[in-house]
């Protein structure tokens, strides 16, 4: 299962995943007019929808949950 966040920065996308122990990975990219962050919690990310996103990047989180202050 993946949730989409539109119009957020890459930093916000990373932070959203890092702060959620259920996050297994995320991808981040742009369509014609805005950024999209997809946070996944039930399966590892194995790719992104490159056909609709430009400069898409994909991250698989395998290090576990990080404790943030």
Secondary structure tally, helices: 1
Q: What is the string of helix and strand elements?
A: EHEEE
Note poorly predicted spans: none
Q: What is the residue-averaged pLDDT? A: 74
Bulk shape? globular
* Helicity range: 10-25%
Task: Give the strand content.
Answer: 25-35%
Number of domains: 1
Distance between the termini: 27 Å
What is the SS-derived class? mainly beta
Care to count the β-strands? 4
Protein name: Apple domain-containing protein
Structural notes for this entry:
- The protein has one helix and four strands.
- The chain is globular, with a radius of gyration of 12 Å.
- The protein has a four-stranded antiparallel sheet with strand order 1-3-2-4, with helices on one face.
- It has one domain (2-63).
- The model has no long low-confidence stretch (mean pLDDT 74).
- It has 69 residues and is mostly beta strands.
- It is 13% helix and 35% strand.
- This is Apple domain-containing protein.
């Amino acid at each position: 299962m993946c949730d989409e966040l539109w119009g957020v920065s890459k930093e916000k996308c990373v932070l959203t995943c890092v702060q959620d122990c259920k996050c297994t990975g995320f991808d981040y990219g742009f369509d014609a007019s805005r950024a999209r962050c997809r946070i996944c919690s039930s399966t590892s990310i194995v790719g992104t929808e490159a056909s609709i996103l430009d400069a898409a990047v994909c991250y698989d989180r395998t290090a576990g949950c990080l404790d943030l202050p």
